[in-house]
Amino acid sequence: MINLSHFSKCSTLIDKHFRAKGDFFLCTDTRKYKHPGFFVAIPGAKVNPLDLCEDLLTKGCSLVVYQKSTENDLKAAVLKVKFPNTDFLTCLDSVTFLQELSQAHTEAWKHTSSRNTVFAISGSNGKTTHKEMLAHILKTILPGKVVATEKNNNNHLGVPLTLLQAGRDTEIVVLELGSNHPGEIKVLCDIAFPTAGLTTNIGATHLEFFGSEEAVFEEEGHLFHAVNEFTAGKGFFLQNIDDNFLKRWKKSAGTISYGENSGADAKIKFTEKGAILSYKDLTLSVVNDHITGRHNKLNLITCAFIAHHFYPEQKAAIEAAASEFKPTKNRSEWMDVDGKAVFLDAYNANPSSMMAALQGFKESVESQGRKLSEACVVLGDMNELGDSTPLYHQEVGEYVKKLGFTHVYFVGRYASHYLKGFPEGHAQESSAEFKPIYRSTCLPSFSHHFIKGSRSLQLESLFDIT
């Protein structure tokens, strides 16, 4: 919900058009229009949104903002004749307009209450998991007062659209920041003005564009520096000192280090089904039957600690909410398929996330009294790893063998490189090719199944999941 009285820094035309009209919704997808509201037409690679907006105009949309061009001016003129009650306003660039609108809205929203916070999350692995966990906890204890990134809408469009959802009742925005290229995190921070945050870890992600983990560290670190800049060093920031890169940051006044490291401010110990965090006089304990692996236990206790930092009076409710968290569809999700336990993460994969998930899967299988010979492991491609892609796949293959798994299948264009690390494995070119083999042979034969790969493979299709 957007309070249009906040937009003094945005287009004077927008300010004039809506100043007296209170709250309106904004959308960039014609299918998601809500009345009353206005539409920002962002040009697509193949589609001009002005060709698709008649339905929302029929519903009473009073304003369309579009990117000025001769073609668009002609289309807008035709629509204006058919819908005389709608105003069509131009901007030089629709994306820039959306970002500037979000900036103005966010700055004004934050100043309406000292409690209003933008908590941002960056990092190589676990951003979406942290976001989902933290949002679940906060929405449980603060119904109607939390806005969070939907799915993984964490880019130059998704971030401003998320921020524009913050309304009069919102107290905290949980924002995921994603980056594929150098400089993107800084751009997002300049839009969002985060005053608190967390960088999860640094790993081998998007090396095709960054070149090295050092460059990834520099990119992800923009969030830490932004929070310090926006808060004069007083903003709450969690520093994972178990990470060899993140521990290098010099702590500011608002920084709290965490991890298993004995030097951490907030010390974490793992239990069979959760974790315990100790910080000063505080002890937080989380038990959860729905997650697997130390990495997810760490993610969950960390999110409980974040929630407690902002709402310490809700300690018991925070612990209870954390215990009820369940992974989202296709992402670190446990499913029952024909009586078999299936761990599915068909959304993303890189070397560090793959190894952490495999370790967690092994712990889960063994904790249930099963042997690893009763488990089937399916690994798909890990994308955007640059020149070292073959080596990373080989190393993960070696890691699978080291863990002790014996029934392993590799799917995708890098299957042959996995095989160099695990020659006893089986290779398939695609999910479609592998599906009949998996369904007829693998699924009936093993009690536990691990399936993980990058989004391009659509490994969920093995189960006819979309």
Topology:
Blueprint: E1 2-3, H1 12-18, E2 23-27, E3 37-41, H2 54-58, E4 63-67, H3 70-82, E5 87-91, H4 94-111, E6 117-122, H5 127-141, E7 146-148, H6 158-163, E8 172-176, H7 184-192, E9 196-199, H8 207-210, H9 213-220, H10 222-231, E10 237-240, E11 255-259, E12 266-270, E13 274-279, E14 282-287, H11 294-310, H12 315-323, E15 333-337, E16 340-345, H13 351-367, E17 375-380, H14 389-403, E18 407-411, H15 415-421, E19 426-428, H16 431-445, E20 448-452
Parallel strand pairs: 2-3, 3-4, 4-5, 6-8, 6-9, 7-8, 9-10, 10-11, 11-12, 16-20, 17-18, 17-20, 18-19
Antiparallel strand pairs: 1-2, 12-13, 13-14, 15-16
Classify the fold: give the CATH topology of the largest domain: UDP-N-acetylmuramoyl-L-alanine:D-glutamate ligase
Q: Architecture of the largest domain, according to CATH?
A: 3-Layer(aba) Sandwich
Major pleated sheet? 9 strands, mixed
Task: Provide mean pLDDT, rounded.
Answer: 89
Number of helices: 16
Strand content: 15-25%
Helix-residue proportion? 25-40%
